[in-house]
Design a protein that fits this description.
Largest sheet: none
Distance between the termini: 61 Å
Structural class: mainly alpha
Strand content: under 5%
Oligomer: single chain
Number of strands: 0
Number of helices: 4
Shape: elongated
Radius of gyration: 21 Å
Length: about 110
C-alpha cells in the first residue's frame, strides 16, 4: 500500500495517493480472503468501504461516496450472515460430535 502510494505521489497528480493505494491494497486482500471463504474478509471490506466513502466525500464525488456507504451496509450484512452461518455450522458439528460420543459410550 505505502509503496504504491509513494509511486502515485511522485508519478501522478493524484489528490489522495496514499488513501487511494490503501483502498486498492486492502481490496485485493479482502478479495483474497473472500475467495478463501474467510470470515475476516468482511472486516477488511468494512474498512475499505469506510475509507472509500470518506475519500470520495473529500473529493466531492458524493454519488460515489453514497455508493460506498451502501457497500459498507452490504458488507455489515454479509458479515452478520456469515457469522450466523458459522455459528450454526459449529453448533451442528458439536451436536454430531456429542451424538457420536453418546453412541460410542453406550454398552
Amino acid at each position: 500500500g505505502l509503496g504504491w502510494g509513494a509511486w502515485l505521489a511522485t508519478h501522478t497528480d493524484a489528490a489522495m495517493p496514499y488513501p487511494d493505494s490503501l483502498i486498492l491494497s486492502f481490496s485485493v486482500v479482502g478479495q483474497w480472503l473472500q475467495a478463501r471463504k474467510k470470515l475476516e474478509n468482511w472486516a477488511v471490506w468494512c474498512a475499505v468501504n469506510t475509507l472509500a466513502t470518506w475519500v470520495y466525500w473529500q473529493k466531492e464525488l458524493y454519488l460515489f461516496s453514497v455508493l460506498y456507504a451502501l457497500f459498507l451496509l452490504m458488507a455489515v450484512g454479509g458479515w452478520r450472515e456469515w457469522a450466523r452461518a458459522r455459528r450454526a455450522q459449529l453448533a451442528e458439528a458439536d451436536a454430531a460430535a456429542s451424538a457420536r460420543a453418546a453412541t460410542e459410550a453406550a454398552p
